[in-house]
């Protein structure tokens, strides 16, 4: 009999699937609410792993997760808030191009279409479900009139028919204003709740005892083997790139910034509104002899005119950006962007850059 290879990725996935199904069966025996699995547990890569997640809803109607079922005492419907909790756990995503309000000829009929599905490990939606929900202001207004007419007949403080009619008109107008204000939002929540119910196969209503049990579902998460040297190197590189995207690249070799007056130092630039005669000049270090550049060296920055002041403002800024790149100076160290510098500040920064040595292309990162 051939021994089973436990290093085979397919065998490992099957083992994980059996472990998950055992957990599901244990939850089922305890009376939990088992929702439809998010994917077929055999179909995922070795970098993904199935996990069992639970969501607990509050059976108290005042908490906002459920509301009473008037047609069947002792049972409760799920609020849209509860459906969102289940959808987030199941990784249900919405198609932004196919979901939205459907235009119509009657402004008093608001229709919303929702298209959503469970996000698969490869990023696609599995078998997207489509559902629509409409809010008809004409029907809602007729229902409100009937409700307030019945209340008016029972209200003894309304003595005459005019009083009752004024009461009905006021209440209907007040409620219809709220209905129109939130028509699109309610249509959207209704359409999305229908999609969530179809995907997760939830019941139409639940008893209090059922709501006290957790809702259990399976989803697949990205969980590679972090002991693998290649995976570890990739994750560290991704983390470094993410940090660099937020905070910028560090100084070469991690060295501290040089003191002011030395090449590569951060130049404190005063606010552009500061008067030129109040500026304090920072002494610059001796730049030393100019390094020889062959006439054919195309990487050397273009020399400025005999006087930097001969350039217009746009040329100065572009020249400073190019010069800073060749000098290896990161413009994020400036207190203000170059566009906010006055002419005096631009000239001072130009002189500072010219005093710095050019950087080679072999910059360590």
Features:
365 residues; three-stranded mixed β-sheet; alpha+beta; disordered C terminus; disordered N terminus; four-stranded antiparallel β-sheet; flat; 10 strands; 15% strand
Please, could you describe this protein's structure?
38% of the residues lie in helices and 15% in strands. It has two domains: 9-222, no CATH class; 257-290 and 297-354, no CATH class. The chain is flat, with a radius of gyration of 34 Å. Helix 2 (80-90) crosses helix 5 (183-200) and helix 8 (313-327) runs parallel beside helix 9 (343-354). The chain is of the alpha+beta class and 365 residues long.
Structural class: alpha+beta
What is the percentage of strand-forming residues?
Answer: 15-25%
The count of DSSP E runs of length 2 or more, i.e. the number of strands, is 10
Question: What integer value in Å does the Rg equal?
Answer: 34 Å
Q: Give, in order, the helices and strands.
A: HEEEEHEEEEHHHEHEHHH
The total tally of domains equals 2
Q: How many angstroms does the end-to-end distance come to?
A: 55 Å
Main sheet specs: 4 strands, antiparallel
Regions with little confidence, pLDDT below 50 for 5+ residues: 1-6, 274-305, 361-365
Helix content: 25-40%
Give the oligomeric state. Answer: single chain
Assign an overall shape.
flat
Helix count, DSSP H or I runs of 4 or more residues? 9
Mean pLDDT: 78
